[in-house]
Design a protein that fits this description.
It is built from six helices and no strands. By secondary structure, it is mostly helical. The chain has two domains: 60 residues; 85 residues, no CATH class. Helix 1 packs antiparallel against helix 2. The radius of gyration is 21 Å and the shape is globular.
Length: 187
């Protein structure tokens, strides 16, 4: 027997409608770009494909297991935890979490994506509560590797390089490695 209710169908239809609407709008700016072989719509359409598969996967998961709370899942409890901002440290932490993406965005021009991103990821992981250095470093490297793989190898998207000397040199090294990889694999 299916665990799908009307609200699940409506949710899936809304998300699929968003995917379809944005996909059809993407034809309005479909142009070739010299440095990016997939054109102006490559990145938006890849996000739409991911959103389609996430919606489909969520729908199938609800069909099989339902949408109720499942025992043993991390981060889910039967009782809602009270959020209190009486403590000044929790307010500082909230402000730090909200301001860190702004600092990251401002650092992209002088420092560049390739150098600023690992620090941003590590800071966010730390601010969200992880204190073990080994885990912070390993998770940061994993996420950074996935981002580099997605943006440089798969999408071949140009990223901010920075203009301050050591960071710019690192960005140039990353771009050289990317060019050599694409030439060796005949992309």
């Amino acid at each position: 027997m299916s665990n799908i209710r009307r609200v699940h169908i409506v949710e899936a239809v809304v998300w699929l409608s968003i995917v379809l609407i944005f996909y059809f709008f993407s034809f309005e700016f479909d142009q070739e770009i010299e440095i990016y072989k997939y054109g102006a719509t490559g990145w938006p359409r890849s996000i739409l494909i991911l959103l389609f598969f996430v919606t489909l996967g969520n729908f199938l998961h609800i069909h099989k297991k339902g949408s109720g709370i499942q025992l043993g899942r991390v981060g889910i409890s039967d009782e809602q935890e009270e959020i209190s901002y009486d403590d000044f440290n929790s307010i500082k932490k909230l402000i730090a979490i909200l301001i860190s993406p702004l600092i990251f965005a401002l650092s992209l021009k002088p420092v560049g994506f390739y150098s600023a991103t690992p620090f941003f990821i590590a800071v966010i992981i730390f601010l969200l509560g992880e204190k073990r250095i080994k885990w912070i470093i390993s998770i940061t490297l994993f996420i950074y590797f996935l981002l580099i793989l997605l943006f440089m190898v798969v999408l071949n998207a140009p990223l901010p390089q920075g203009n301050v000397s050591p960071f710019y040199d690192f960005s140039a090294l990353m771009l050289t490695l990317n060019t050599n990889l694409h030439q060796s694999l005949n992309f």
